[in-house]
Amino acid sequence: MDSVELVSLARTLVDIDSTSGREAAACQLVSSWLTERGYTVVEQPVHDDRFEGRLNILATLGPPTVVLSTHIDTVPPHFPSRVEGDVLFGRGSCDAKGILAAQMTALERLRDEGEGRVGLLVVVGEEDGSAGARHANHHPVGSRYLVNGEPTNNRLGRATRGVSRVRIKASGRTAHSSHPERGESAIEKLIDALQMLRTLELPAHPTMGRTSYTVVLMSGGIAPNVVPPVADAEINFRTVGPATDVRTALEPLTQTVELEDVGEVPPVELKTLPGFETDTFRFTTDIPFLSAWGEPLLVGPGDILLAHTADEHVLIPELHEAVGRYVEICRALLTE
Question: CA spacing 20 to 30 A to 36: which of 25, 120, 177, 317?
Answer without folding.
Answer: 317
